[in-house]
Amino acid sequence: MDRFELVEKLVKSTGVSYADAKAALEASGWDLLDAAVWLEKNGIVEGKTGHFSTNPEQQQEQRKQQEEERRKEERARDSVRNSSASRNSGKGIFQTVLRKAREIIMDNEIVVCKRNGEIFLEVPIWLFIILLIVAFWPVIIAIVVLFVIGFRYRLHGPDLGSERVNSILNRAENAAGDFVDRMKNQNSSPKHKAYDATRENTQTRDNVYDYKEPPHREE
């Protein structure tokens, strides 16, 4: 409770003028009960005026009520501060997430590789996202066609270019490659099937691609 509110409360409780109430509060260190006593001692008001009294027991009860009001006001202020801090914290987290997403988009890239690991094409993540937005289906079809004819995809950069991420991507591509091979075998002629079976028994499958970062791209 600020001083203006204290003066108004004392005026309302005792019926004195604003000037007398302010003088009483200033003389008593801005304590309402002491100000009421000061007014009584100076003959400005009679005893037991309004909500204040010089009776010790009543003064103690009034002080308890005053302290309780003060605590309620403090709790209300704390609640407002905590709410503001929570909003600021949420805003800070959101800004951090946006900043990290921007770094990932700007600093990483998709690398299209040939079977021998030679780099065929490098596409920044931000450009890839724009292409998906502008021409989603043509981009998807191009990705599938390049994969079927033997190209593979890797991620490069400080955020996405880890060996673990590319290892997971490699296993997924190998599984997809196996599926494509099975589909080709099911649709091929018996002669080709016999040839493929003999080829699989005599040499290592060539659809497993263990990608390794080219020397000029190692960090």
Low-confidence stretches: 198-212, 214-219
Number of helices: 8
> Which strand order does the major sheet show?
2-1-3
Strand content: 5-15%
Radius of gyration: 40 Å
* Largest sheet composition: 3 strands, antiparallel
Count of spatially separate domains: 2
Question: Can you write the helix and strand succession as a string?
Answer: HHHHEEHHEHH
How does the overall form come out from the CA principal axes? rod-shaped
Quickly give the structural class. mainly alpha
Helix content: 55-70%
Distance between the termini: 63 Å
Explain this structure.
The structure is a single chain. This protein has 219 residues and is mainly α. It folds into two domains: 3-101; 108-217, no CATH class. Helix content is 66%, strand content 7%. The chain has helices spanning 3-14, 18-27, 32-41, 56-107, 125-134, 136-148, 163-187, 190-202; strands spanning 109-113, 119-124, 152-156. A three-stranded antiparallel beta sheet has the order 2-1-3. A hairpin with a 5-residue loop joins β1 and β2. α1 (3-14) packs across α2 and α5 (125-134) crosses α6. It is rod-shaped, with a radius of gyration of 40 Å. Residues 198-212 and 214-219 have low confidence and may be disordered.
